[in-house]
Amino acid sequence: MAEKIRVGIIGAGGYTVSRMLPGFAKVEDCEVTTVANRNRANAEKVAAQFGIPTVLDSWQQVIESAEVDAILIGTPPNLHKAFQHIGILSLEFHVDKLSRPLL
To answer: Which CATH superfamily is domain 5-90 in?
Structure first.
C-alpha cells in the first residue's frame, strides 16, 4: 500500500465539517493530520470529532508543517483570494481543484 497523503486543514467551519472531513474519512490513502481555525476552540472541537491529531494556531503553521502533504483551504469563499495573494498557491503543494473562484 502506498503512503497516505497527509492533509492539513485551514478553516474548520460548517462546510469543512459537513462535507470535506467526512469525504476525507472515506479515502483510504488519506489522513487529516492538522487543523487550524481562527477560533482555536472550534479547531479543537473539530479535531476531537474527527480524530485529527494536531491543532495549530494559524494557517502559516499548517503550510509550514512537516506533517502536511496537501492542504484544504476551508475558509469562507471571500477569503480564498487572500490566500492567492499571500502566495500559498506558489508553495510546493499540488492544487487539484479549486471549488470557489479566486478572482
So the answer is: NAD(P)-binding Rossmann-like Domain (3.40.50.720)
